[in-house]
From TrEMBL:
GO annotation (BP), single: transcription initiation at RNA polymerase II promoter
Chain positions recorded as Zn(2+) 2 binding sites: C98, C101, C123, C126
Region (Disordered): 1-25
Record's function text: DNA-dependent RNA polymerase catalyzes the transcription of DNA into RNA using the four ribonucleoside triphosphates as substrates.
Domain of life: Eukaryota
Native source organism of the sequence: Elliptochloris bilobata
Stated name of the protein: DNA-directed RNA polymerase subunit
InterPro entries: Rpa12/Rpb9/Rpc10/TFS (IPR012164), TFS (IPR006288), Zn_ribbon_RPB9 (IPR001529), Zn_ribbon_RPB9_C (IPR034012), Znf_TFIIS (IPR001222)
């Protein structure tokens, strides 16, 4: 029990250190959040208050660059919902024939793809989907 008391006392006496890396900073004048800005003339990062003219240089420990690259496969970009034929805002045509059920009415919409402009068709009877490259 005495060992536990000593550990607790040691933890209380040590000053808490902020975690390493970027952290939130506040204006000493208005207590508002300081926002990172670029000082283009000096080519440095500064923190600036949006309510007053207070600025402070960012320490090098706060300099960081994040790069987020998102790549999508071709199939991810073109998603057709199952119930697209029930969408009243999409145009319909009777000038095509479904290869699966031979019904002659389909909902269609266009989209730009890697192959160029493409018309997507969805049979309103069986839900079969196909495309036509324009």
């Amino acid at each position: 029990m005495e060992a536990e008391a000593e550990i607790g006392a040691a933890e209380e006496s040590e000053p808490s250190k902020p975690p390493p890396g970027p952290r939130l900073r506040f204006c000493p004048e208005s207590n508002d959040l300081l926002y990172p800005k670029e000082d283009r003339e000096r080519k440095v990062l500064v923190f600036q208050c949006q309510n007053c003219d207070y600025k402070e240089d960012a320490p090098r420990s706060d300099w960081c660059v994040y790069r987020n690259e998102i790549t999508h496969s071709h199939k991810e970009k073109t998603v057709v919902l199952q119930d697209v034929s029930a969408d009243p805002t999409l145009p319909r045509t009777r000038d095509v024939q479904c290869a699966k059920c031979q019904h002659n009415e389909a909902v269609f919409f266009s989209a730009a793809t890697e192959e160029g402009m493409t018309l997507f068709f969805n049979c309103i009877k069986c839900g079969h989907r196909w495309r036509d490259y324009v």
